[in-house]
Amino acid sequence: MLMQDLLDALKSQLNGRIRNGELTERNLAKRIGLSQAHMHNVLKGTRILTAEVADLLMLELHLSVGDLVSTEDLRHPRKPPGSDSGAKRIQEWRLEKRDATSR
Q1: Can you give the CATH number for the domain in which 9 is found?
Q2: Could you tell me the residue range of the domain that residue 80 belongs to?
Q3: Which of 15, 18, 22, 89 is the most buried (most CB within 10 A)?
């Protein structure tokens, strides 16, 4: 599970609570010190949900990471995009550095 997956899960949970009538965008925004417009844009994905805002939301609603993660997510973690190519780039960089110092 990646950080973006956790942020998406938080947004999904918040949107679900709003749809169920448990929360409103206005009330939630007020509770953490944001404007309702900004909260709306974060929840619909127009603005980025930052780690700071995510922390405020989780603290205000008494949520933990465990509340956002399913057992299925833990059993089948997702690889980061380009993770295989990233390891190759690091290896190539090390070889280039080694070759440059041996000249």
Answers
A1: 1.10.260.40
A2: 3-101
A3: 18
d(CA 103, CA 98): 9
**Cβ(73)–Cβ(1) below 8 Å:** yes
Q: Which of 67, 51, 79, 52 is nearest to 14 (CA)?
A: 67
User: Whole-prediction pTM value?
Assistant: 0.69
Span 22-80, pLDDT tens digits:
999 999 999 999 999 999 999 999 999 999 999 999 999 999 998 888 766 655 666 66
Q: Which of these, 36, 32, 89, lies nearest to 60 by C-alpha position?
A: 32
SS3 101: helix
